[in-house]
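Go through this:
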Amino acid sequence: MADMLLLGFFFLLRPGEYAYTPSQDACPFRLCDVHLLVHDRRLHPYLAAEAELQEVNYVTLEFTNQKNGVRGEMVGLGKSGHPAWCPVLAILSRVRHLRSFNATLTTPLYSYFDTSWKRIDTTAMTTQLRTTVTALGPRYGLQPHEISIRSLRASGAMALLCARVDTDTIRLLGRWRSDEMLRYLHVQAYTLVAPLASQMVHRGSYTLIPTSNLRG
């Protein structure tokens, strides 16, 4: 479940792309949709040796059957530098688990083996998130009912926005076709907008050019 939470956050995924949902529109990423790279060398998720997996520094997810993506399009990320909070490590964890139990290449990434094949669903993930928010949320002003699995997509976008990543890049990663979500994030991003008033006062001095000088 931790792996899937990380993928939803870092890749700005829709819930049906990384967790089981009974919706007919859900098209999850599968093992065959994963591409592993060591710099510019691509590895096969099943055939790569463990030593090669340890060298992977970039991963991509390929859109093959997702209705909200362009077939053949890929979205990729490199290592975050964090020992646990990292999209590359999360993908590798999924690959290792699935192939250790002889999963097929068309097995969804949300699958796991525990005496039999099971799947991580959206309800279980929302429950886990809300349990965590019950314990940790009050110090940040969060309530469990305010959080669901859908929060991960917005949270990832917010993290990018607060890191001053340009909005075009955020839209590309999240496959947004309009600026509506980004407008919402601009308003909600405290760390982004809190300093604006001070900046307007201290750095916003300017001089108007007299219009008479422009008329010739």
User: Anything to note?
Assistant: The beta strands are 34-38, 41-43, 58-62, 74-78, 111-113, 117-119. The chain has ten helices and six strands.
